[in-house]
Amino acid sequence: MYMAAKPVKKSVFDMDNQEFEQLVKPIGEKAKQTALDNGSWYSYQNELCTSPDMFIHEFKDRKELVKLGNEVGEYTVLNVF
User: Fold this and answer.
1) 54 within 8 A of 67, measured Cβ to Cβ
2) Residues near 32 by beta carbon (within 8 Å), at least 6 away in sequence
3) What's the rounded mean pLDDT across residues 6-20?
4) How far apart are CA 42 and CA 9, in angstroms?
5) Are 55 and 49 in contact (CB under 8 A)?
6) Does 2 have pLDDT greater than 90?
7) CA-CA-CA-CA torsion for 55, 57, 63, 65, nearest 10 degrees?
8) Distance (Å, whole) CA 33 – CA 69
9) At 19, is the secondary structure helix, strand, or coil?
10) 44 Cβ partners below 8 Å, 6+ apart?
11) SS3 of 7, please?
């Protein structure tokens, strides 16, 4: 009786950057969409963030440029787009 060989999966430790990115990208996109669907936001930095304490908060219906405050959870909305 012939048994098909299972494909060998490459360890994440043996992957190059591109292979690793292809592996985790769908997981990140699903987590982002779940957060947005649940009313949370997704935070990241881009060229609009001109200092280390500035972030984009992306909601399902808008994006906000925010600057973090001195206390945990404190931030100021600088722009909505």
Assistant:
1) yes
2) 42
3) 87
4) 31
5) yes
6) no
7) -30
8) 27
9) helix
10) 55, 56, 58
11) coil
pLDDT at 8 over 80: no
Question: What pLDDT, in 10s, does the model give residues 25-71?
Answer: 999 999 999 999 999 999 999 999 999 999 999 999 999 999 999 99
Place of tokens 């299972």: 6
Residue with tokens 């399902």: 60
Longest dimension (CA), the chain: 68
- Phi-psi domain of 21 (left: phi exceeds 0; alpha: psi -120 through 50; beta: other): alpha
What band does 14 get if pLDDT is binned at 50, 70 and 90? very high
| DSSP assignment of 27-76 | HHHHHHHHHHHTT--EEE--TT--STTEEEEE-SS-EEEEEE-SSTT-EE
